[in-house]
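Please decode residue identities from the backbone states below.
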């Protein structure tokens, strides 16, 4: 009975790890798309929203 519980935890952990990895990849793609959009704006527009081009290039927005 104990072995079944430990096995179930192992499978749940593996699925949880995979789910977290996919979530991280999705967030990285979203950040990349946002960065590309912001880099399309001129410096004045970036200043209007409170960030600099340097912030966008380094991911601090």
């Amino acid at each position: 009975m104990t072995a079944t519980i430990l096995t179930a935890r192992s499978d749940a952990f593996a699925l949880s790890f995979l789910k977290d990895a996919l979530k991280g990849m999705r967030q990285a793609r979203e950040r990349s798309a946002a960065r590309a959009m912001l880099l399309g704006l001129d410096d004045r527009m970036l200043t209007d929203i409170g960030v600099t081009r340097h912030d966008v290039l380094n991911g601090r927005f």
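Observation: The CA atoms of residues 20 and 37 lie 26 Å apart.
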